[in-house]
Amino acid sequence: MGYPRQFVSLIAQLARLPGVSRRGAERLSLFILNMPDKSAKSLIKAIVSAREKVHRCKQCFNLSSAELCTICSDDERDRTTLCVVETARDIAALERSHRYRGLYHVLLGKVSPLSGVGPEDLTISNLLERLKGGNFSEVIIATGTDVEGEATANYVARVVGELGVAVSRIAYGVPMGGPLEFVDERTLGKAVEGRTRIERDDKSKRER
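The chain above was modelled as a monomer; its predicted structure follows.
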């Protein structure tokens, strides 16, 4: 491309980011190169600081700069309801709806056999331990509505239901086939309010 080796390396690194094409990485690289020194140094500092100080909350696996995230450490949150999501981005989306005031649990992904991801690869075992040691009356499942999200929701509903905790699924006001992070706040708020109870389909019930 006629670019210096260092610039080509920057393009290559940016192109590895999700959603960034090679052409987009080239534009970003040119923008960074033309930034004022102060702005460029601030960007570098922010990246280094986030890498060094941001980790997973030891309780819910949300992003946090302390041992517990701001939600888990908030005494004003409803500690009887627990919302199960795929990623920390889903928490941010639900928080923007201003309709849910309970706690969260991040699975760090979803069940996807084609990608080699099973229930044991997620934080489901941590979720069950948390439910056993807590005083939760309801678990709200807010995974995505794609095939993998639905499979994950069904699995979580089954194993949580075995503990005797009420399980509900957010209403299908959210668009089918997409992640929560792209859903607007009003739709998400209505989805939480209109959640439906998931009934257990155990052996004794089927025999009746």
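DSSP finds eight helices and seven strands in the chain.
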